[in-house]
Amino acid sequence: MAIPTDTNLGASEAPTRRPGRSGRRGRPATASPDDVLALVTELYLEGRRVDVTVVAARLGLGRATIYRWFGSREALLGEVIARQLELLVARKRAEVRRRGAAGLLEVLDRVNRTLTRSTAVRRLLEQERTAWRMFTSSAGVIEPRAVACIQSLIEEEMARGDYEPPADPATLAYALVHLRHAFLWNDATNAVRGDYERLRDVSAALLGIPGKPSRGVIRRTRQA
Description:
This protein is an all-alpha fold. It folds into two domains: 11-70, no CATH class; 81-223. It has helices spanning 33-45, 52-59, 63-70, 73-95, 100-117, 119-127, 131-136, 142-159, 169-184, 196-207, 215-223; strands at 185-186, 191-192. Helix 1 packs across helix 4 (73-95) and helix 8 (142-159) packs across helix 9 (169-184). The protein is elongated, with a radius of gyration of 19 Å. The chain starts with 32 loop residues before the first helix and ends with a helix.
């Protein structure tokens, strides 16, 4: 099992598989979609490539059954990653005491730094030619869930009366997620760029937090 640290995105939240007992000795128990998600989560957090044939064999299922449940291998992986991202955001929100725009920025910054350090994310980008598209496609599983997650954070602060966003929550959340794509992932090499310092500065501006950009932003801007 993966060591439960932030270097593995959501590793401490990996679900436990509980296959049922079989009435026939030596015959694998009938597995469920939750069992599939749990095993794929385990493989993802350990940085191992997900092979649907292997997953099916380990759970005593047919590949066709897994595809019927999840549609495709990419959709299955996307569901696992989206769930881990949602758990990560919830965990970081619970860690941050500040509210309003400053609290939102701190939560987002902690999430982005964790994604940059994540062994699971890095290995996925190395192993999968379509990983960058999986993370960034609005037609996929991950990005819409990421946007909804941030939108929920914004609306929670609005409901508390601690924040008045400069744009409607859905648009602001969408912009923040696409900023993450631009600053964290390198679409040319399918790797982690990890420019979370500039990402924090631009996110602060989008959230309506006044202040000067960091020296890193000024230096890079002049070099450009």
